[in-house]
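PROTEIN DESIGN WORKSHEET
SECTION A - STRUCTURE
LENGTH: 351
TOKENS:
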């Protein structure tokens, strides 16, 4: 048994928390080996939950040092229960319970007391104290975490954090790295606590993405696409994927170029208005997702980015006029960020 198989047999799948199934390695094949995790559905069918490359196995092994996975028993519904309440009780996401039981929001409303639900494993963050730990816990690049922090912190140095509440651009009370304050949340955090909270938020986002897109579909996505989706959903919630027609379908079917062309949603949930800042955030997401092409970005994706940029500048001009801001100064900063995303691939407006 080679070392990769030993690792695979010793860890649980990051998403399912289930027991692993050893897969025999064909020594004559030089291509990357894929390992699958199987489970029995309620129809007693054996379904392949994931196909994970050797690199992903190593990533999952690292992630297991930062994530505790706990299996949950089936839950018999009681009078007054709702999926949201049950999710909160077990520390999982509502979408995960729905997906785990083959339900949607409509069918979930027909559930009655006495019915039994399968509860997905709970995942808890541990040992996260800095930005590098966040990256390792999520299986993403440190560069992505640093850029996410920069986008959320808007000007804070890399080694500084929002340890106390502040109000974001949408007027939402926030703390740490883009964490919207909820009732009962602490109002004072250490740097380590900020990083731990960010990892927890990202883990919830990942759980929702996996549930919405299908665990198998999400698991096999290119890393750059996962990072782009993590940022989109971290920024706007997982429902942002439904705001552009066909995006979920493209992601589920592996039509990634088409999915990237749908990363255009730039409206505030609070006001329903388009915002130049959200246009720029979508440009960041497009730039992250297109890293899968290793510099050879499809022209259709460049065209989409150009359109998003052009609209962003129109909005910026309007916002500066409304707020009495210097458009030239704001434009220079906007272009600097966009150029850091795309280099010279976009035609930038200079006045």
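SECTION B - SEQUENCE
RESIDUE ASSIGNMENT:
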């Amino acid at each position: 048994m080679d070392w990769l198989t030993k690792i695979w047999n010793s860890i649980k799948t990051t998403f399912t928390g289930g027991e692993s199934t050893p897969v025999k390695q064909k020594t004559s094949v030089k291509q990357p080996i894929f390992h699958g995790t199987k489970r029995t559905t309620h129809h007693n069918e054996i379904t392949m939950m994931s196909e994970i490359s050797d690199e992903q196995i190593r990533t999952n092994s690292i992630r297991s040092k930062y994530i505790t996975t706990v299996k949950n028993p089936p839950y018999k519904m009681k009078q007054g229960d709702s999926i949201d309440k049950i999710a909160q009780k077990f520390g999982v996401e509502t979408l995960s319970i729905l997906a785990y039981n083959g339900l949607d929001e409509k069918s979930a409303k027909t559930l009655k007391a006495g019915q039994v639900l399968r509860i997905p494993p709970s995942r808890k963050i541990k040992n996260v104290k800095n930005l590098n730990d966040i990256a390792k816990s999520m299986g993403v690049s440190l560069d992505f975490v640093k850029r996410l922090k920069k986008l959320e912190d808007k000007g804070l140095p890399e080694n500084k954090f929002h340890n106390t509440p502040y109000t974001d651009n949408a007027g939402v009370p926030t703390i740490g790295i883009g964490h919207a304050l909820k009732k009962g949340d602490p109002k004072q955090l250490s740097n380590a606590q900020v990083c731990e909270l960010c990892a927890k938020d990202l883990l919830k986002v990942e759980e929702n993405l996996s549930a919405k897109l299908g665990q198998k579909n999400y698991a096999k996505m290119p890393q750059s696409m996962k990072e782009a989706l993590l940022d989109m959903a971290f920024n706007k919630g997982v429902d942002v994927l439904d705001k552009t027609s066909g995006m979920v379908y493209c992601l589920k079917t592996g039509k990634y170029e088409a999915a990237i062309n749908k990363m255009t949603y730039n409206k505030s949930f609070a006001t329903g208005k388009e915002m130049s800042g959200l246009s720029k955030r979508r440009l960041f997401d497009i730039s992250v997702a297109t890293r899968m092409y290793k510099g050879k970005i499809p022209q259709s994706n460049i065209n989409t980015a150009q359109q998003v940029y052009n609209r962003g500048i129109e909005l910026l001009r309007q916002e500066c006029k409304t707020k009495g801001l210097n458009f030239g100064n704001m434009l220079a900063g906007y272009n600097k960020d966009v150029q850091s995303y795309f280099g010279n691939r976009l035609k930038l407006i200079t006045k």
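SECTION C - NOTES
The chain has four domains: 1-64, 72-120, 129-213, 221-351.
The CA atoms of residues 83 and 108 lie 7 Å apart.
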